Records
---
Amino acid sequence: MLRQLLQILALILFSIAVVMLMPYVQQGIQALLTAHGWISSQLTQVFSGGSTGDLIRQLVAMLAMPIAIGLVPVIIYCLVKRAWFPYFMQVVWVVWLVEVTALVIQFKAVA
């Protein structure tokens, strides 16, 4: 019971923080999408223009940013503690979910 109450309290506090910091959150998500677009455009030079090449380009572009962002705390943690960062995949998953959500929201189907 106490654990559920703490989780609800944490959810409320994080929601308040997001509402208060909305302009900064929007800037962060926009920077993530801009970096994704830049990586995708750079990979256009590497992969062919066919459907398979386009699929691989989109896959690599979608995975590059979460892994790159996840490596930042890993490097800092490794330099300080001299051990592997234990939550690397959790950070990658969170960044990936944010990126995919933003990409799906801004997606426009080609008619």
---
Amino acid sequence: MHYNLDRAYRAVGEFGRAQWLLTFVNCVARNAGTYTYYPFAYLVLEQKFLCTDPHSELGLETQCSAEKVCDFRSADPSYSAYRVDTGY
């Protein structure tokens, strides 16, 4: 059986209100200067931190993930030897 666009929409449950709303939002975001559309990729990146290992005596900062910061904070709730890596 051959499908055209209308038959394909009917087969998957029509092109409803949600699809029309998403189409409209994407069209506006794509054509409205894209101030909210393109930066979205940066907002979903994993945040990197610069951490000082509490077990190290040298006090050198290394790049670490949020998971590692949480591990340090769960071992010692007063741990605050980390900062956001703004160069990432």
